[in-house]
Amino acid sequence: MRRTSLLCIAVSCLVTAAQPSAAEAQMTVPRADSLRLTRQEAVALALANNPQLAVAREQTNEFRAARVTARSIPDPAVTASLDNQSNFFRSGAGGAKNVGVGLTLPFPNKLRLQGAVATGDVGAAQANYLALRQQLAATTSQAYDSLLVAIRHLSDTKESLKLSSDFLSRTQARFDAGMVPRLDVIKAKVDVAQATNNLISGQRDISNAQAALDRFIGRPLGQPVVATDSLIIPPDIPTLEQLEPIALSSRQELAGIAAQRRAAGAATALSKEFWLPDLNLGVSRDLTPGAPASAFSTGIAFPLPLLFWQHTRGAIAQAQARERELAASERDVRAAVGEDVRTAYATATAALRQARYIAEELLPAARQAFNAASASYAIGGSSAFEVIEARRTLLDAEKQYTDALSAANTSRADLERAIGASLTNIPLALPNAK
């Protein structure tokens, strides 16, 4: 009896200390500086403010600047010399003074091919930027759904706490009337304590989800966010036959490797033009005292590529190997995109079916069982253990439903990332079976 009394006192203290009145009010009423966002608004803010996109944009600008450099003609060079000097930087009476200007003119087609190589790098960087936007949109949508899930779990926990408290009050009244043993009261108090602890954990989950969403949308961490959308069962998904061609034309990974292949082709053509001369033009004038005023000299120089095998086995072979490498990589990327679409499609359709099954079958049955157990307990037909188990079953079903809604919406966002396009604008060919 003494051990039972101590347990009752400990549980009562835990319940009293953890009453959620103030915390619930703080979580229920949004702060004045809270940012109210729909899912689309959160994605738009992320695409506008996320620093990862700023990094990708600047990397693209770096390649654009490198393209200007690749197309540039070298600057002219001015030369001056003192010949027949009696000392450093001192020309004697018979010394000669020469000044000149030199200019290197690359073969015109080489400039074009160098620009094509650099343009391919720009295209690959731009494709990487667009792919990052698609990925960020999906992860932001998933972070938004995580906040909705945390809010819904907290709401379910509050309802569970209310049911547990009501059950504790009824059990205490029946114990005072001598109708049930003290053990029923202890079980009811433990159930209230567990619901209270779950409430505290739910508040923590909301805070963490808000911090994650703040990071994605580019806000200071800790700023409150109010999600105005609801966590609902998403609409039907188009068929796999509709989605695969869209993915192969919209995924930026394929666009990026196509740009790299164009650049590699230009690099191969450029390496094969080693025999085309770059012209080195030079003009000089003799300023030696006593020399004729019109003593000019003009020269031209260009390479003579006699050691051709060094080019064919070196730069040309390297460029051709790069082309073959990218061709193999493109085949692998196309296969990876197809696998990604199929995996995301299977996950999304399965999650959609699970959410509908729980909403239509499991959740109504669990709610009916709890109502029946509560009504039976009220007239003395069932035990406290049966009511608690029925309530836990209902809470577990509600948690499964919330998790299923989260999986359905999250997997839909991942499927949009996999195909590189929004599912909203794709018409349904055939309705999916439930």
Would you kindly provide a written description of the structure presented here, covering whatever features stand out?
It is a single chain. The chain is α+β, with helices and mostly antiparallel strands and 434 residues long. It has a single domain, classed as Outer membrane efflux proteins (OEP) (Up-down Bundle), CATH 1.20.1600. The chain is built from eleven helices and six strands. It has helices at 2-17, 21-28, 39-49, 51-70, 108-176, 182-217, 240-250, 252-271, 308-313, 315-378, 384-419; strands spanning 35-37, 77-87, 90-105, 225-227, 279-286, 296-301. The strands form two sheets. A four-stranded antiparallel β-sheet has the order 2-3-5-6, with no helix packed on it. It has a two-stranded parallel sheet with strand order 1-4. Strand 2 (77-87) and strand 3 (90-105) form a beta hairpin. Helix 4 packs antiparallel against helix 5 and helix 8 runs antiparallel to helix 10 (315-378). The model is unreliable at 1-32 (pLDDT under 50).
